[in-house]
Amino acid sequence: MNASQRRERIVNALDGSDRPISAAALAKQYHVSRQIIVGDVALLRASGHNILATPRGYILEHPDQQNVYRIACRHNAEQMQEELYAIVDEGCTVIDVIVSHPIYGQLTGQLNLSNRHDVDEFVRKSRASNSTPISALTDGIHLHTLRSPDPGAVQRVRTKLKEMGILYTNET
C-alpha cells in the first residue's frame, strides 16, 4: 500500500469509529511508525479533513455535528473533575478548553470528553504526568466548547455550574 492509500484508509478508519484511535494503534494496523501516522494526519488536516487529536487518540469531526455552545468557567485545578462531571452528566461532550494567553493569543486543548469514564481517564493522565491545567495560565478563567443533544442540556449545565460557583460571569 502506498502513502495516499494509507491516508485514505486512516480517514475511513476514523470515520467508522465511535471512539478515538491512537497513532500507535494506526501505526500497528498499517505496519508503519507512529511518526509516519502523525505526518499522515498532518497532511490529512492540511487537505481539509477535520481530524482532532484528543488525549486518547484521533477522531474525525463531521461538520453536520452541530449544536455547539461555549461556556466561560473559572475554578482551581482541584475543581476540574467536578466541573467536567457536571457537564458530561447532562449529556454534553466537552470538545475543548480555550484560554486567552497574553503573548500567544488563543490556546486550545482538545478534550472530547463525553462521559465520566472519559473524564476519569483525562484526570488520571493529568495527575500521573503532574500536568498543570491550561487554565492555570489565566488564573482559572477558560472557555469550554460543548456539543449538546439539545439547548436544554446546556442550560442545565450553566445552572449547575453557577450553583457550584464555577460558571464565569461578569459578577464572578
UniProtKB/TrEMBL annotation:
Keyword set, alphabetical order: Metal-binding, Nickel
Domain 3H span(s) in chain numbering: 71-167
Transmembrane region(s): none
Gene3D superfamilies the UniProt entry points to: 3H domain, Winged helix-like DNA-binding domain superfamily/Winged helix DNA-binding domain
UniProt binding sites for Ni(2+): H75, E83, H142, H144
Residues annotated as domain Helix-turn-helix type: 6-59
Pfam families documented for this protein: 3H, HTH_11
Single GO molecular function: metal ion binding
Keyword Cell membrane: no
InterPro entries: 3H_dom_sf, 3H_domain, HTH_11, NadR, WH-like_DNA-bd_sf, WH_DNA-bd_sf
Entries under PANTHER family matching the protein: TRANSCRIPTION REPRESSOR NIAR-RELATED
Protein name: Transcription repressor NadR
Source organism of this protein record: Catenisphaera adipataccumulans
